[in-house]
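Structure tokens please, single chain.
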Amino acid sequence: MTTQTDGNEIFFHTPGRHADAYPYKILVAGRTRFYHADGFVSRRFHHHTLICTLSGLGLIEVAGARFVARPRTVAWLDTSMQYAHGCHPDADHWHYLWMSIEGHGLEAVFAFLRVAGSPIFAAAGDGWADGFERAIDNLARRGQTTDARSSAIVARLVEMLVAERGEQASGEERGEPVQRVMRALRTDIARNWRIEELAAVAGLSASQLHRQFKEKTGTTPMDWVRHERMNLAKRLLIAPNVKIAAVALNLGYADPYHFSRDFRRVAGQSPSEFRRAQGQ
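Here you go.
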């Protein structure tokens, strides 16, 4: 599906039935031009998002710290964390390409490269922007090879990110406490986690974890994992011939009623209503 507004383009993609055979997926990509009138926008999508600045200047805020997105740079955001962005006050616009991705090991690479504290990568040459343009074109011309091509494009971009910064990071880097907790939650999303278990993963007390997690993500660990589960549920619900009870069980809900209650709380509609709205 394609959306166009005021010169901006957004290309949505639902991975095919064999998409899990590939390590990476591109869920949505597009071209965006921001102006001062658009304000400073705060969003939360629970995806990894890459932003390639073409012209102008952007301002990105992550966990209270601000970073400038300049031309020929790439920003990597984990949008499950608290963040906001907009046009820099010293520029008249911010023109960028972007894509939201998911895949095996992205959290580990994110932690290894210490992206949470330094989300801007200095791009060299035109390879970065070319990769984003290929991703957008791939989603615009959907076909049998879309998922395979998407995975290859993301793999190449991840390789470039690691090459740009990998030598600065320790091979033994485990990430900050909040990153370790987020990685553990995503790895075992169906587990009935207790706050004491998550505190042990972080190496903090429960109160310290609660405070640090809230500072970085804007929410609590339990609310964060609930949104993460519902984000995954949306992708499972649009798959054909998958029962709602099976989706609930896959996400750690023994009772479909409690799953439906949480889904409505987060998505604003029941799983059945969401499925019908997607044409399923």
